[in-house]
Amino acid sequence: MRLSEKRGNMLHGILLIALFSCAAFYIGDFPFFKKLSFSPLIIGIILGMLYANSLRNRLPETWVPGILFSSKQLLRLGIILYGFRLTFQNIVEVGGPAILIDAIVVLITIVGGVGIGRLLKMDKDVALLTSVGSGICGAAAILGAEATIKTKPYKTAVAVSTVVIFGTVSMFLYPVLYRNGIVDLNPEQMGIYTGATLHEVAHVVGAGNAMGKEISDVAIIVKMIRVILLVPALLVISFLMAKGAAQQAEKGSRRITIPWFAVGFLVVIGFNSFDLLPQGIVDFINNLDTFLLTMAMTALGAETSIEKFKKAGAKPFILALVLYGWLLAGGYLLVKYVVPVLM
């Protein structure tokens, strides 16, 4: 097959995913999905999975490289551009106590999740992805971890589904708990609690807006700091994977695969902190980035069938439920009793 023909076939796969992604944006504007705060990323992976379990077998195999390109290369570019949503000034604004709470939540969730996964005798990749998604920033974190450990697409889809379920429940639950005084927190503490424990950025925005601007502003900044923690988390994961591979090899040397897209993400945050670009350009980049990440999620969904979900079993959802309980109760105790001491 000629090079030009291969490129044409790859382009067909990319255009297919782009078409589904456009549909995800269109569907995301429906009032029902807006009320649920379902981002195009989530809708995209659902559309991809629907396609995978219906018309997928009719897709020419020559188009598959385009789908894989969308789930790999476009994913990395999307993670890098995600940095335009953040600045280092955000960290200064929220203060040390919230940063410490974020760090504790992320560390315990990921380490604890991996440990529980071992007790459940789960697939280690699924356990890690589920833990990273619960601990940091939902689907975006899972995509970042997937690009680092290079696992199978269906495992990523399973982890994303757990985040969607429990994150959506939290988005409706937190305002109810706050309004009825079940969680005895002041507005600033509730903002920290929301940002430090909810899964997706969209979930934080939805829950925060339901409780008022004073809570929402703090919650979003705290959540964005968790997003920044994705970089050191990926570096540590990469290091531990390289160390484990070296120990298994008889004469292998330890080689760390640095996730350069994560470093690029951090560099972009630094650049954005100088406020050099007009807001209109930044908004355009953020919209483009959302589309790229939606394409990546859709492509992952297109590689995920019901049979693969059955293969994963119920254990990922059990793990996600345990982690959800920790975020709900442990996060509250941290914010209620640790933050006042630090402030």
Automatic annotation (TrEMBL):
Keywords: Cell membrane, Membrane, Transmembrane, Transmembrane helix. The keyword Transmembrane applies. InterPro entries: UPF0324_pro, UPF0324_YeiH-like. One of its GO terms (cellular component) is plasma membrane. It comes from the Bacteria. PROSITE patterns: PROKAR_LIPOPROTEIN. The chain crosses the membrane at residues 12-30, 36-53, 98-119, 126-145, 157-178, 224-246, 258-278, 314-335. It holds the Pfam family Cons_hypoth698. Coiled coil: none annotated. The keyword Transmembrane helix applies. Belongs to the UPF0324 family. This is Uncharacterized protein. It comes from Odoribacter laneus YIT 12061.
